[in-house]
Design brief:
- Helices cover about 60% and strands about 5% of the residues.
- With about 475 residues, the chain is mainly alpha-helical.
- It is globular, with a radius of gyration of 25 Å.
C-alpha cells in the first residue's frame, strides 16, 4: 500500500509536475481546417436561426393565448426551431470550449484571445436570435408547452422550460431581451475577459529565501503557496500581492461593473415583482434565499471550529499565529524536508480511491490518463486555479490544474476528476437535461475529495505518515 511516507521517499524519482493534455482529438488548432469548418457552420446556423426567429417573434405578443390545436402550424414551427438551436449551441460550445482551453494554458496566445472575442459576439447573436423562441415558450399557455414537449425531438426541453417559466413575470419585451444579449460582449463578458487576460499574463517576481529571484506566472506563484517551506510560501504570497497591486484599479473596475450590470438588470426586470440582485444566482443554483440564509447561518455558528483548526495548524508549524501565506500549507513534512508527490504516484492513489467505491470509477481514471485529458503542467502563462470542462459534441471531459506535487494539489486533482466522472456518467443524457447547477456539480467533486482522504487515512501506517 502507498502511504504519505512512501510518497516522500519516491519524490526524487519520476516527473513531479502533471502532464500536458491533448486537445487534438477535438481540434488540432484554432487555425485548423476542422475548427474553421465548424466556425463557418456556426455562422450559417446562426444566420438561419435569426431568420426563423423573426417569424417566431411576431407571435410573442399573443403567446399567452396560444393553443396547440388552433396554432398547430406555429407549434410545428417551434418544434423545428428547437433542434436547429441545439445544433448551433453545440457548435458554439465546442468552439468556445476549445478556445478557452487554449487560452487557459497560454494567456498570451493572441489567436485564442481574438477568437474568444469573436465567439462572444457570435454567442450574443445566438442568444438574440433565439430570444423570441424562449419568450414564446416562457409566456405560452400550459397546453401549448405540453404539446410542444410531447414531440420526441423536444421532450428533453421539458425541465429547462419549466425552470424558465418560473421567471415569466421577469421577462422583458423582445426588443429589450435582444438588446441585453447584444450588449453582453461589450458589457459583463468584456470585464470577465479583461480579468482573464490580466491574470494570464501578470508576472510575479519571487524573492527566494536564498537571495535569488524567480520570475513566474500567477499560477506558478500560487502553486508555491501549497509547499512545505514557509519562507518560500511567504515570498510567493508577497510576490503575488505586489504583482496584483499593479492592476488593483482594473480589478476594482471589473468587480464594480459586473455588479452594476447585475443590479441594473434586476431593476429592469422588477416591473411586475421585485427582483433582488441575488435572485438570478439563486435561480441558477436552484435554491431559495431561505436555503442560502440557513447555510450562511450555520457557517457563522460553526466558525469557531474553523478557528480552532487554524490554531492547531499554527501549533503544528511551531508559530504563534498563521500568516495569510500559511492557509494552504500542508502538514509539516517529516524531518522538516520539503517533499513532493510525483504525479504518477498521486494519480495511482486517486485511482485506488475511486476503485474503492466501484472498479468502473478506477477504470475511468485510467482512461482519462491514457487519453491525455488531464492538464497539470507548471508553466508561465497558465491561468490560475483548476476546472473541468466538457466538449458538447464528443461529450469528452477534460481536467485542468497546475500540479507541483503538494497534497492539496492531489486533492484538487481528485476533485476535478470527480467533475469529469459526473460528465462521463451523463454522456448518454440529452444535453438539455444535463445542465446541472453548481449546487449539484460540487457534490460529485467533494465526494471524490472525501474518498481520497479516506484512502489516505486507511493506508497510513501511523499518525505521521
Amino acid at each position: 500500500m502507498k502511504t504519505l511516507a512512501m510518497f516522500r521517499a519516491a519524490s526524487d524519482s519520476g516527473a513531479v509536475q502533471g502532464p500536458e493534455w491533448d486537445l487534438s482529438p477535438e481540434y488540432p488548432s484554432i487555425d485548423s481546417n476542422q475548427f474553421k469548418a465548424d466556425f463557418s457552420a456556426l455562422e450559417a446556423a446562426i444566420a438561419a436561426l435569426v431568420e426563423q426567429g423573426k417569424a417566431i417573434g411576431s407571435r410573442v405578443a399573443s403567446a399567452a393565448s396560444l393553443e396547440p390545436q388552433k396554432d398547430a402550424a406555429f407549434l410545428t414551427q417551434c418544434r423545428q426551431f428547437a433542434p436547429a438551436l441545439e445544433h448551433a449551441q453545440i457548435l458554439y460550445g465546442n468552439l468556445a470550449t476549445y478556445t478557452g482551453c487554449v487560452s487557459s494554458t497560454d494567456g498570451s496566445n493572441a489567436a485564442a484571445k481574438t477568437m474568444r472575442g469573436i465567439l462572444d459576439g457570435l454567442g450574443s447573436r445566438l442568444s438574440s436570435g433565439s430570444a423570441a423562441f424562449m419568450l414564446v415558450l416562457t409566456l405560452a399557455t400550459d397546453a401549448f408547452v405540453d404539446a410542444f414537449c410531447a414531440a420526441p425531438e423536444t421532450k428533453a426541453l421539458r425541465f429547462m422550460l419549466d425552470q424558465a417559466r418560473k421567471l415569466r413575470n421577469r421577462t422583458l419585451s423582445l426588443d429589450v431581451e435582444r438588446s441585453l444579449s447584444t450588449l453582453g460582449p461589450d458589457g459583463y463578458l468584456a470585464w470577465g475577459n479583461l480579468y482573464d487576460n490580466l491574470t494570464g499574463t501578470v508576472r510575479c517576481v519571487i524573492k527566494m529565501p536564498d537571495g535569488s529571484e524567480k520570475t513566474t506566472g500567477l499560477s506558478g506563484a500560487a502553486s508555491r503557496l501549497k509547499g512545505a517551506d514557509r519562507a518560500v510560501r511567504e515570498a510567493a504570497w508577497r510576490a503575488i500581492n505586489t504583482a496584483m497591486a499593479g492592476n488593483q484599479e482594473a480589478f476594482a473596475a471589473i468587480l464594480n461593473s459586473i455588479s452594476g450590470w447585475r443590479y441594473a438588470e434586476a431593476g429592469m426586470r422588477s416591473h411586475k415583482e421585485p427582483v433582488h440582485f441575488l435572485d438570478s444566482a439563486l435561480h441558477q443554483s436552484r435554491i431559495r434565499a431561505a436555503t442560502l440564509d440557513t447555510l450562511m447561518g450555520v457557517l457563522k455558528e460553526s466558525r469557531e471550529l474553523g478557528r480552532e483548526a487554524l490554531r492547531l495548524q499554527a501549533k503544528a508549524y511551531g508559530v504563534e499565529r498563521l500568516g495569510p501565506w500559511d492557509t494552504l500549507a500542508p502538514a509539516p513534512a517529516l524531518g522538516g524536508k520539503e517533499t513532493a508527490i510525483p504525479f504518477a504516484q498521486g494519480l495511482a492513489t486517486v485511482r485506488r480511491a475511486y476503485a474503492s467505491i466501484d472498479e468502473s470509477m478506477g477504470d475511468f481514471v485510467d482512461s482519462m490518463s491514457a487519453k491525455r485529458r488531464i492538464e497539470g503542467r507548471v508553466m508561465d502563462g497558465k491561468r490560475p486555479g483548476a476546472f473541468c470542462t466538457e466538449f458538447p459534441r464528443s461529450r469528452n471531459p477534460f481536467v485542468y490544474t497546475t500540479y507541483r506535487g503538494a497534497l492539496s494539489e492531489l486533492s484538487t486533482l481528485s476533485h476535478e476528476l470527480g467533475h469529469a466522472y459526473h460528465c462521463e456518467v451523463m454522456r448518454d443524457i440529452p444535453m438539455a437535461e444535463s445542465e446541472y447547477p453548481m449546487t449539484l456539480a460540487e457534490t460529485a467533486s467533494t465526494f471524490a475529495e472525501t474518498v481520497l482522504g479516506e484512502i489516505l487515512v486507511a493506508e497510513a501506517k501511523d499518525e505521521s505518515s
